Amino acid sequence: MSISLSKGQKVDLTKTNPGLTKVIVGLGWDTNKYDGGKDFDLDASIFAANGAGKVANESDFIFYNNRQNANGSIVHKGDNRTGAGDGDDEVISVDLSAVP
Fold first, then answer.
1. Pairing assessment for the beta strands 22-27 and 46-47 based on DSSP bridges
2. d(Cα 77, Cα 27) in Å, to the nearest integer?
3. What tens digit of pLDDT does each residue of 48-96 get?
4. Which of 43, 14, 45, 20 is nearest to 95 (CA)?
5. Which candidate, 32, 54, 57, 29, places its Cα nearest to that of 43?
6. pTM for the full model?
7. Nearest to 99 by CA among 73, 65, 77, 60
8. DSSP 39-100
């Protein structure tokens, strides 16, 4: 199942899929040929917050330079600096059943 979100939009993943254990967060973009067609870089990242809604330490911020959390349940698949290619340009996989 694929869901495309717009800025500010939210989705409840467990409401329609109570047994959901794994998700992939994908970010895709292309250069704007009407704005000079220059490459630009977007970055996918995840803040792994604890039960109090706080990020406990730097290793809980998953992005291109810290590609997974301590137990490997959240993994950033790599940095794409241009948006070139089809489909998702940056991907983060999350094993919900293993996230502390």
1. unpaired
2. 11
3. 999 899 999 999 999 999 999 999 999 998 877 776 777 777 889 999 9
4. 20
5. 29
6. 0.77
7. 73
8. -------EE---TTS---SGGGEEBTTB-B-TTSSEEE----SS--SSS-SEEEEEETTT--
